[in-house]
Amino acid sequence: MEPPDDEVPNFEGQGLTTLFEGEWATVRRLRKGKLVVTSGPDQGKQLEMVKARVTGGRSIISDLVLQDKAVSGTHFEVAARDDGYRLRDLNSRNGVYVGDLRIREVFLRPGTLFRIGHTQIQFQPMDDIVEIELSKRDRFDAVIGGSPAMREIFASLEKVSPSDLTVLITGETGTGKEMVARGVHNMSSRKKKPFVVLDCGSIPRELIESTLFGHEKGSFTGAVGQHIGCFEQAQGGTIFLDEIGELDIGLQPKLLRVLEQREIKRVGGDRTVKVDVRVLAATNRDLREEVNKGTFREDLYFRLSVVNCELPPVRERKEDVPALANHFLRDVASRRGLTMSWSQDAMAAMVSHSWPGNVREMRNVVERAAALSDGPVITRADLVFGREMGPSPLAAHDLAQAGAAAAQRAAAAMSGVAPPMNGPASFDPALLKAGLGFKQAKQTVVDAFESAYLAALMERNDGNITRSAQEAGLTRYHLRELLKRHGLKGGDQE
Question: pTM for the full model?
């Protein structure tokens, strides 16, 4: 569409513009660009940029598909940003050149020529404007985000969720990929049916096929009975394939056939079973690069990414930090029957932090701060980020021993059995030897108790997260997050 001349903003140096009413973004406008092949096997071929990011290469998963054999499968991308159009090399074999310079990333000017393999391409901005819809809401199911980037994603998910389209959710570790998948399921007509999660990276290679598709009794050593796989467990509902980039290349063709034919065959069986399942997948890997390396099938990527949802890291949506921090603090405080808030300097520190672990890291920081705080107001002194979060190795060893003993005594007291000889109320002097203050010593004991409790819980339930969560009075999601935090089997292996 072309808005009236008086509504077209000045796009000099810009590809993407966000318009606001006060502090609320109302719409994003993309100035269309064009990539024109000026020389090479595909001379004359053109691609109009009608979305904020396009890719080029020999693979069919690229937007600009080229025949040049010196070009990688997905060779480059051009992305529209508020400060211009960015050309980036996607770890290609032969590189991207502007003039005689090989570049990793560069901003494009109108008319810029760049070369990949034996092909030369010119970037040409256009006068047409594409309006990108933003959701009117600042959350999607349990996912929070009032920033334009997140509300653009929400608008797309609101349209996609009621359908049965396959969605590939990408993003760094901790950005909330599983929560988005749950939101898609909860917003669909399948919401009353099962939502089955399979972490492809946490299951041994020899068991993944049986886990996905099931097996018949006697089909292999240890198969003492029939097992119903994840696809059948999800019948009528949704299966979420987390860390799909970890799936063994030898099993990928079988998954592709399931996606195409909607039927499975159990290991050791000769009967096909029809499955009515929606498939959602997620990864923190760049699957385009995996396709280039030959570790992920091109046709499977194409089948999974019918809709592609890329979650931005928290550092690229700092305006969402206060809302996220307040949400996590309210959750922690309500579980304790308290009302808690942030001091101004604490919130400033939260906003300025880079959050390499994204939303997951933020949740952990908030929970730790709430536990360490002396009062209802979180101060800067209560916040522990990154490398600050653990004592020195020697202190950690002493504290781990003291914490494990404290956890043992607490568990014994709760179980009504005889505690160790020094009694549950005794204090281990190793906590003082570590040279730490009360708050850090207390938190270390709490961490040790959680780790010991969760390990015993999972062992008693044979590693079954659902049964373990029910026994502990936790949600399955919360239990998985605790397992991740303590590095215990059953959590994500991201």
Answer: 0.74
Q: Quote the tokens at residue 46.
A: 């053109």
- Residue 261's φ and ψ, nearest 5 degrees, are -105, -15
167 vs 187: CA distance, rounded Å: 14
For residue 310, how far is the Cα from the chain centroid?
A: 9
Give the DSSP letter of residue 136: S
The HSE-up count of residue 25 (CA atoms within 13 Å, CB side) is: 21
**Cβ atoms of residues 424 and 417 within 8 Å:** no
Dihedral sign computed on CA atoms, order 330, 332, 333, 334: positive
Report which of 326, 308, 373 is spatially closest to residue 160, judged by C-alpha positions: 308
| CA nearest neighbour of 195 among 277, 90, 122 | 277
Please state, in angstroms and rounded to a whole number, the distance separating the CA atoms of residues 119 and 99. Answer: 13
Q: Which residues contact 146 (CB under 8 A, 6 or more apart)?
A: 138, 319, 320, 323
Say if residue 69 is exposed, middle or buried (CB neighbours under 10 Å; 0-12, 13-18, 19+).
Answer: exposed
pLDDT digit string, tens, across residues 112-135: 999 999 999 999 989 899 999 999
Beta-carbon contacts of 151 under 8 Å, excluding residues fewer than 6 positions away, are 25, 134, 135, 137, 138, 145
**CA 231, 484, 201 angle in degrees (round to 5)?**
40
The C-alpha atoms of residue 411 and residue 125 are separated, in whole angstroms, by 66
pLDDT class of 428 with cuts at 50, 70, 90? low
How far apart are alpha carbons 47 and 33 in whole angstroms?
Answer: 8
